[in-house]
Amino acid sequence: MASAGHLTLGKKERLTGKSLVESLFKGGGSRSMSFFPLRVVYAFVEGGDAPVRLLVSVPKRCFKRAVRRNRVKRQVREAFRKHKHVLYEKESLLPEGKTLAVAFIWLDNHLHDSEAVEKRVSNLLTRIGERL
User: Fold this and answer.
1) For the chain, which terminal residue's Cβ has fewer other Cβ atoms within 10 angstroms, N or C?
2) How far apart are CA 53 and CA 42, in angstroms?
3) Residue-wise pLDDT tens digits, 18-72
4) Where in 1-132 does DSSP place strands (E)?
5) At what angle do helices 66-83 and 114-131 cross, to 10 degrees?
6) What is the distance between the alpha carbons of residues 32 and 49, in angstroms, rounded to a whole number?
7) 114 membership: H or E segment, kind and range
8) What 3 state SS string does 60-93 have?
9) What CA–CA distance (Å, rounded) separates 52 from 61?
10) 10-14, 37-41, 112-116: which has the minimum mean pLDDT?
11) How do residues 119-130 score in pLDDT, each as one tens digit?
């Protein structure tokens, strides 16, 4: 059974800060994969309090209304919270002093139900875990 820290998504697990986000997207060490309607980009970045940090992006061109963008972000964050144990089990494989930064980017112009989003997030996290 996972410890209580693995059942929540705390502030320390959010990927924030311009330099960290830029290092994720501009760094040569980042990898990505897709499972429509999501694309995930991940890389090892310097520092951080948590072994895995999350960023969720829903572009305005996909949904003009913030209500819909926020709904999708909530769905992805909740699915990540439920299935992040897949990555935490691989925590021993992380390089010393590094954090695994994970960014989910929404690709579709349509809303999906929460079960479908959760299935795709789970699949992507499993694939990341296999590649670590």
Assistant:
1) N
2) 10
3) 988 998 998 778 999 999 999 999 999 887 788 999 999 999 999 999 999 999 9
4) 31-35, 38-46, 52-57, 98-106
5) 50
6) 23
7) helix 114-131
8) CCCCCCHHHHHHHHHHHHHHHHHHCHHHHCCHHH
9) 28
10) 10-14
11) 999 999 999 999
